[in-house]
Amino acid sequence: MQQTNSSELKLLPGRNLSAEPDDLVSTIVRFCCDHIHSEHAVLVIRGDAGTGKSIVINSAFEKIQEASRLSGSNDVLHGTHNVFLVNHPEMIKLYRNISESLPTLRKKDYERPTTFVNSMDRQHKRADIVFIDEAHLLLSRRDSYNRFNHDNHLQEIIRLSRIAIIVFDSRQVLKFKSYWDDRRLEHLLRDIPHEVFTLTTQFRVRANPDVMKWISGFCSRRILPLPAQQEFDFRIYDDALEMYHDICAMNARFGLCRMLSTYDYPYVLNGQDHFIEEGRFRLRWDRARPEQRLPWAEREDTIDEVGSVYTVQGFDLNYAGVILGPSVTYDPRTQRIVIKPDRYEDGAAFVGRDALDNPEAVQEQIILNSINVLMTRGTMGLYIYASNADLRKKLHDMASRRT
Fold first, then answer.
1. I need a labelling partner for 97 at 20 to 30 A (CA). Which of 1, 54, 58, 389 fits?
2. How crowded is the C-beta side of 307, counted as CA atoms within 13 Å?
3. For position 8, what pLDDT does the model report?
């Protein structure tokens, strides 16, 4: 079996980038040179899922570390103390694996945000440049259970660095305790010199624009006409088991094809297997295996599991089979998607509602964000099955009329 779309290869610095991301890498390096003696400065990288944000930030980090560690390469940045942060256990595995193949990067360059903040505070130090991938996963409130005793990850990281380079996408926020939106980010940065750059070209989903338009519409509670038949393989299923069989067949051909689901089925971290059941389909949730070197999406054995949004956020697959669970419903009268947060099983996502002005609306947005993440994983194909009978019928009817 050939793994044609390894995330390690995708994020490996030194790849030939197209003009837009390559220009942004150069811009980031110039920004760091210009602000290395500033008190604080922030550069924000925005863009939808699949626009190349992670490859840009890792490529820029590799260039900064080369300048820091190789004498004569860049006198302004030579000897600087720089760190790459990501609040995602599967993604940090990926970055550390990548660092093994590059002479100017070290595994210790990549840290979790809380580890960084606590370490810098303990040593009474601060870094020169901090890169933050998936900044929308940073905590926006205190989390004493995980040993973060400040009020906001990003605020503390900026305090403990001269320059912060951050990747931010408000449509990938997944928890109350890391709730961000555009207004909150703008408020935090209002008194700090900062620049914002937006990537627009879609690199992950190799499809005509109507596919991304359909996904965006669905995540805004609208069902648009299905994308036209094209090379990108977009299918609707009435049977989750049939979808799984087709995902297995594609995995045998291409590798990196996986089943995914909204967090609508019970899952407890107790060492036991927990299953998703839909009609004839029964498959276990992804297993927590922190000791594994490879992240979940890269391991061949996970074809026998169903991944969650926490497992695959930030990763590419070739084909994704997405189960829309009971929290995702459809109202035939209004012809709109209806989100049912009471059927969403990720209770931990909704802890801390007292700090939000409109927690019910945020709950629904978090579920819609999770659907956006799941539907934008596949580079070659997206298969969809809906648990809700009304939604399944609506998608089936549209598929039968598809051109």
1. 1
2. 34
3. 61
Q: What are the tens digits of pLDDT across the range 289-310? A: 778 888 999 899 999 999 999 9
Question: Which are the contacts of 315, defined by CB distance < 8 A and separation ≥ 6?
Answer: 7, 90, 91, 94, 295, 297, 298, 377
Where the chain has pLDDT below 70, the residues are: 1-10, 12, 14-17, 72-74, 403
Residue for token digits 């901090």? Answer: 130
pLDDT per position as a tens digit, 276-286: 999 999 999 99
Are 152 and 117 a contacting pair, CB within 8 Å? no
Asked if residues 192 and 42 have their Cβ atoms less than 8 Å apart, the reply is: yes
> Domain ranges in the chain?
7-198, 209-400
pLDDT of amino acid 202 = 82
Residue for token pair 């009471």: 342
The reply to whether CATH 3.40.50.300 applies to domain 7-198 is yes
Strand, helix or coil at 391?
helix
DSSP for 254-313 reads HS-EEEEE-S-S----SSS--EEEETTEEEEEPP--TT-SS-GGG-GGGGGEEE-HHHHT
